[in-house]
Amino acid sequence: xxxxxxxxxxxxxxxxxxxxxxxxxxxxxxxxxxxxxxxxxxxxxxxxxxxxxxxxxxxxxxxxxxxxxxxxxxxxxxxxxxxxxxxxxxxxxxxxxxxxxxxxxxxxxxxxxxxxxxxxxxxxxxxxxxxxxxxxxxxxxxxxxxxxxxxxxxxxxxxxxxxxxxxxxxxxxxxxxxxxxxxxxxxxxxxxxx
Length: 194
Prior knowledge:
The chain is an alpha+beta fold. It folds into two domains: 4-64, Arc Repressor Mutant, subunit A; 86-193, Beta Polymerase, domain 2, CATH 3.30.460. It is built from nine helices and seven strands, in the order H-E-H-H-E-E-H-H-E-E-H-E-H-H-E-H. Helix 2 (24-31) packs across helix 3 (35-47). The radius of gyration is 17 Å and the shape is globular.
């Protein structure tokens, strides 16, 4: 098992895209972890080549080393864990939504992840099969109590919107749960940094 705080830090660095990375105080504060614990975890991850450290204005900034095979596999494992830990309605809808096969990435986001009080089910599909996604979501909406609302992007458009720092996309990535395409998602993030 991966320690909970290590998991939090790695997922944070994966989903909070910043070319410069984050310093220890930012990582500590944004993950609600003591600076001492964050320091110890960051040093261990750096030693194992999971993280890259860059000195900027007398502060060490950390980001994931996505050129390292172990880092990629660790990130994939943590993404799968997030999906496995979905609760109640989110789990039910996720099981249905994952049946769509023509998407590179499928990500659940929005109010369904916060609890039982939601009006619809927001889903990001990274695909070029717009009509098939719409038909698929209509079918789900017929058998479930809340409608599935697709947000559809092509892979190149996703990369472009992340590079342009579109707040809505960055928010989906930060708070969403990847249901399908964890390796493609990591490739997209790696592409952003290169």
